[in-house]
Write a structure and sequence with these properties.
6 helices, alpha/beta, globular, 7-stranded mixed beta sheet
């Protein structure tokens, strides 16, 4: 080969090497990353196709759930007992009230809901489940929903409202009832949290 031919070959090789390097650099920008549980997620958000499910006895959980759904651009689904709880039913200081008797006798906690079926359930990847805390656990109307649905392949994040109690083992107990799904650590809100408190938490999920 003459000198010019050799130089030409070298230039072509350099161009090919640069092209390949650029290709791999651009490809890596779209590579999914692994979250703490080892599952893949894209760079835009850690959650997608979100549904907020909630039971609210006195309206506190309802307000939080609606704000969460707004922040996450999520759908929302309310759990409604066929026999709604009255103020008298919810008087935990009265040993003869409905919640007190249900607390003492677990066989009474099988609370029927108007429906446990969510339209397009299979389309949701992430389910947030909200409830008030009753005697240190999730309000038991939520149990009916959890037991009735298959959470396979879904990420489930509990949240609760409480004047004083923490989340406790409520999430773990619901996870045991479901026996399916990837249940993550949840979050406890006060009975009347500020919008900024809720937004701080929902931002941490994005």
């Amino acid at each position: 080969m003459n000198k010019n031919t050799i130089i030409g070959v070298i230039v072509v090789i350099i161009i090919v090497i640069i092209g390949v390097a650029l290709y791999f650099m651009l490809s890596n920008n779209d590579t999914p990353i692994n979250n703490e549980n080892g599952s893949e997620e894209n760079n835009d958000s850690t959650i997608s196709n979100v549904l907020v499910v909630y039971f609210s006895a006195q309206g506190h959980t309802k307000e939080v759930a609606e704000k969460i759904a707004e922040n996450l651009d999520a759908d929302i689904f309310e759990l409604i007992p066929t026999d709604p709880y009255t103020d008298a039913d919810l008087d935990w200081t009265d040993n003869n009230s409905r919640v007190s008797m249900e607390h003492e006798d677990e066989s009474l906690r099988n609370v029927e809901l108007t429906t446990t079926e969510v339209e397009n359930w299979d389309s949701y990847d992430t389910i947030l489940i909200g409830y008030p805390i009753w005697w240190g656990i999730a309000a038991w109307p939520v149990n009916t929903f959890v037991e009735a649905n298959d959470f396979t392949g879904k990420t489930v994040i509990p949240f609760c409202t409480s004047a004083s109690s923490g989340l406790g083992e409520s999430g773990e107990l619901l996870s045991s009832l479901a026996n399916t799904g990837n249940w993550l650590a949840g979050h406890r809100f006060s009975s009347n949290p500020s919008d900024s408190d809720i937004t701080t938490w929902t931002d941490s999920l994005k």
